[in-house]
Design goal:
This protein has helices at residues 22-38, 57-66, 78-88, 105-109, 116-123, 149-159, 165-182, 242-251, and strands at 7-13, 41-47, 71-76, 95-99, 128-136, 139-141, 144-148, 186-192, 195-208, 229-235, 260-265, 267-271, 277-282, 285-290, 293-305. With 310 residues, it is α+β, with helices and mostly antiparallel strands.
Length: 310
């Protein structure tokens, strides 16, 4: 038996993740460890303390454990996944995601079951895939980077965990209306590879690979290894069009709306008239960066465990 357990893995668990309590997360971690042990892999657990990708004792403990590990699992939401993935960009071992957050965007796009028990069963024997990683001014993101008004809308959505879409929409519209009064319209220069666009907007979203127009609150990305960034923003316009824009975003008809700018590129820069310190939300984690913002994509930079694409 000792020889069978020479292989090892690390489990990073966030006890404050959105869809589970601390005791439930510990129970899931034990179940995953038992599942791995049955396959001859010994697992070590590390508690994520919420201090982000670079700080806290959890990161030091993870760095110390990576030397002998062949895979890493994370029990948490998109922000926790990003923090752990950031530590793995210079390592070859794959990352397995047991989704416990609100949106769980990366897990959805990897076809990992959103039920954590089912995810554990799938990930124990899942093959390795390589996916792209986005980066803005050196800071990585796996799903989306948001600027301006969308950062506060995302916080509103996060605060409404478990609320049905039909109840969430009026709340989001009301919040958006008041935010429109507070957030300034910014004149920005978007450079997409060799093209340049001058826009006036309150909100910009950059995604790691483009999203598909779908009738859902969480549109999926068709591919995670296409090597392109998706660029989306709402052009300046009258407030009375807000309900129409929101409905278009939810029912997937936004590509035909003239107020929605959308494009794809391998490199994106966002410039303002003068350097401006902005709130940037990468995979739900807020930070402050100074313009110009330079976005790039790192092709197939991260290894993940996921079911084979259908």
């Amino acid at each position: 038996m000792a020889a069978q357990l020479e292989r090892s893995a690390v489990i990073v668990l966030n006890r404050r993740a959105g869809s589970a309590g601390g005791g439930d997360v510990d129970a899931l971690s034990r179940r995953l460890a038992e599942r791995l042990r049955s396959g001859g892999i010994a697992a070590r657990s590390i508690a994520f303390d919420g201090t982000g990708a670079t700080g806290g004792r959890w990161r030091q403990r993870l760095d110390d454990a990576l030397g002998g590990a062949e895979r890493v699992y994370v029990l948490g939401g998109d922000g926790t996944v990003l923090a752990v993935a950031s530590a793995l960009l210079t390592h070859a071992m794959p990352l397995g995601i047991v989704p416990l957050g609100t949106a769980n965007l990366l897990a959805r796009d990897l076809d990992i079951p959103l039920d954590p028990e089912a995810a554990i069963d799938v990930l124990a024997d899942a093959p390795v895939r390589r996916i792209d990683v986005g980066r803005v001014n050196g800071e990585p993101f796996l799903c989306a980077s948001m600027l301006g008004l969308t950062t506060d809308l995302a916080r509103t959505r996060e605060a409404a965990r478990g609320v049905a879409t039909w109840r969430l929409l009026p709340r989001m519209l009301t919040k958006a209306y008041w935010l429109l009064k507070r957030y300034p319209i910014r004149k920005v220069t978007l450079r997409l590879d060799n093209e340049q666009h001058l826009l006036r907007t309150r909100a910009i979203v950059i995604t790691n690979n483009p999203v598909m127009p779908e009738a859902t609150l969480y549109p999926r990305r068709e591919r995670l290894d296409a090597g392109t960034l998706g660029v989306y923003c709402v052009r300046e316009g009258p407030l009375h069009e807000l309900p129409r824009l929101a409905i278009g975003l939810l029912n997937g008809t936004w590509p035909s709306d003239p107020r929605i700018f959308h494009a794809s590129a391998t490199a994106v820069s966002i410039k303002t008239n003068r350097p401006h310190r902005m709130t940037v939300m990468n995979d739900g984690e807020r930070g402050r960066l100074t313009t110009p913002l330079h976005y790039e994509i790192l092709p197939r930079a991260l290894s993940v465990l996921a079911p084979r694409p259908q």
